[in-house]
Amino acid sequence: AACDRGTSEAHRTTHKDGRSVVYVGESGNWIGLARFAVLRREGGPLPDDAEILSAKLCLYKLKGYVPYLVLHRVTSPWKESEVTWNAGSAGHNWTSPGADVAAERCAVNDLPTAYENAGNRMSEAAQKVWYGPYGCEFEVTKSLAAMLKEGKNHGWRLTAFKDSTCTIVPGIKGPRVEFAGRSRDETELRPQLILKVRCRRLR
User: What is residue 185's predicted lDDT score, i.e. its pLDDT?
Assistant: First the structure.
């Protein structure tokens, strides 16, 4: 089971609901949130003592533009039906607007480099990276294992930047990129958490 949501600095108290698209904007003015129920105690399919051997988050970019993508672990609870830029849920503001996250990034996806490495910009490979749909993968084994061990599975926040310097220019709003949400008609494009696990009990 997955939940996702996008929220915008320009609409600080507006809940973005019922969307099949999640927007993520350069310079952090739009952010995406994603969370998956994994263990049975949180509504997921796996036994509570399951060991996470590997975990990969895959988000599908839908249209043109190739930002540098950064993933952080979310550290505070949020509700999919209520989350905004200012608050994780109704009556419970984030400590830092735009979601409370760990200081250290847990994964990145260097789309500018992937685009350059695809060769001729008119090639099929390059066009796929630029225009999509293109699967952006993030290695999240360590962060997911830590969240489950601590009982604080609040998912991840996705932000976008022009390049790997992750520079934010005050007052400058960069372009935004579209990602498929969990209500997307094309089920193969919905957010995916791909796991390899060891289960002691299957019952």
Answer: 93
